[in-house]
Amino acid sequence: MELIPGNIQAYAERFTSPESDLLKQVAADTYAHHKEAHMLSGHLQGRFLAMVSRLVAPQYILEVGTFTGYSALCLAEGLRADGQLHTIELREQEVNTARHYFEASAYSHQIVQHTGEAGSVIPSLPFTWDLVFIDADKPGYINYYELVLPRLRKGGLVIADNVLFHGQVLEEPVTGKSAKAIQAFNDHVLKDNRVDRVLLTLRDGVLLLQKNR
């Protein structure tokens, strides 16, 4: 299901700040060489992530799911001068691809890559997070959320991607492993009084959560 008509998407991008040359390269290379290029955040969502990060001015960012590095580079734009972004990716090929772009960026000394299962890596990171971006395997969302929330500062943000999951969350009943997992996650945070939330119809759905206690 196309959630946002192509002409509306193009119009929105027209009135959005442009990507850097490096981000354009990441996007072009990903679409040219990766069979799952649709997973890339892209121009509009990337500028949203960058703006949120600049508003937060985070000391520590956690990204769960690196892919080819586009979203990490966007999030890194808001880091404090001595801040760090920790990004976790399971697939070694993606880790290597993203490293190439990170090393070409102005944030090479601030981005720390971790390879492995996010459920194992997250507890090993001894930081208080200011901003967390969850964009990994959908059945893991609830677990990742519960792992990071205790380490998120009050007022800190969690951004969860793909929370409309191609519109499949509207099906009755919801079918498919990932769609069911996303619906379960959405229901989970709906009942969580530790956060305030807004679900944005940006790209494939973005859930913005702010810790309130």
TrEMBL record:
InterPro entries cross-referenced by the UniProt entry: Cation-dep_OMT (IPR050362), SAM-dependent_MTases_sf (IPR029063), SAM_O-MeTrfase (IPR002935)
Keyword Coiled coil: no
Methyltransferase among keywords: yes
GO MF annotation terms: O-methyltransferase activity; S-adenosylmethionine-dependent methyltransferase activity
Any Gene Ontology biological process: methylation
Annotated keywords: Methyltransferase, S-adenosyl-L-methionine, Transferase
Domain of life from the UniProt record: Bacteria
The protein, known as: Putative O-methyltransferase
Species of provenance: Flavihumibacter petaseus NBRC 106054
